[in-house]
């Protein structure tokens, strides 16, 4: 049921109507709760790992990362689940946030070339002047596509980037010949691979593929909090990190039946087989123990600099954008 794949932008919010924060709960803002990138957060919530650590965590869904950050800034949420690179961009603007535990060690973004419109594709330079589908302009998929094509000598203005905010639109655009390439996440890419619709030319679902694209380990999804929360709520920060590392350990050995019992039914969007196939491709992308890799922050800041995010990112104090203090204790606790 490829037409019912979950929208990447999650147009129909699984959370439904806004939920009022519970008294005493630690509220975590997340922009796409069904994303594979944030699956450890869902697992920790569904399996009761937060409660087991003595912390009441409430997940609230927002339209995008910017709105999640704004929710933290306004006091609607205490932390947000988002890409590590956002901590660098925020500090460059004078806002101090840090990752307290790493969920993903790869962003799980894939560039594929259409077999329909480019059957004779040979190299990235062949995409000059072509149409490339992305989740949205300014998104991680858009930035990854820009980075890959820039390496091939293609300027941003030499490509037409086509926003495809839903999985249905992405699959349809590729299969109908509306685009020559697509830079997207799963389960869209797995669906297109199964249909022999694309030829994958860059794949950050694996550790090696991630390094090939970004030149080193590129940390992805994290749980991120403002400095004040981390310093004032060290006990809660530790409990949250413990729950996520526990979930990461569970994901390493979880089988199809475990996933079906744990993941909310709406995430499957009517196609469990496709979800499970995509899940199997994503296994390597999750962090094994919640720790930020030593070279990860440097890779992230170099990538932002290449994308002309401004000279301010190169002046960021990377040591203040993350902490491994909590994850180290969690790793020891769960022997992750």
Could you provide a short overview of the structure?
The protein has 336 residues and is of the alpha/beta class.
What do you see in this structure?
Helix content is 40%, strand content 15%. The model is unreliable at 1-17 (pLDDT under 50). The protein has two domains: 2-106 and 218-334, Periplasmic binding protein-like II (D-Maltodextrin-Binding Protein, domain 2, 3-Layer(aba) Sandwich); 110-203, Periplasmic binding protein-like II (D-Maltodextrin-Binding Protein, domain 2, 3-Layer(aba) Sandwich), CATH 3.40.190. The chain is built from 15 helices and ten strands. The strands form two sheets. Strands 2-1-3-10-4 form a five-stranded mixed sheet, with helices on both faces. A five-stranded mixed sheet has the order 7-6-8-5-9, sandwiched between helices. The relative contact order is 0.20. By secondary structure, it is of the alpha/beta class. The chain has helices spanning 39-46, 49-52, 65-74, 85-92, 140-151, 167-175, 188-194, 207-214, 227-232, 234-253, 256-262, 265-268, 272-282, 296-306, 325-334; strands at residues 26-30, 57-61, 79-83, 97-102, 110-114, 131-134, 160-163, 181-184, 198-203, 221-226.
Helices and strands in order:
Layout: E1 26-30, H1 39-46, H2 49-52, E2 57-61, H3 65-74, E3 79-83, H4 85-92, E4 97-102, E5 110-114, E6 131-134, H5 140-151, E7 160-163, H6 167-175, E8 181-184, H7 188-194, E9 198-203, H8 207-214, E10 221-226, H9 227-232, H10 234-253, H11 256-262, H12 265-268, H13 272-282, H14 296-306, H15 325-334
Parallel strand pairs: 1-2, 1-3, 6-7, 6-8
Antiparallel strand pairs: 3-10, 4-10, 5-8, 5-9
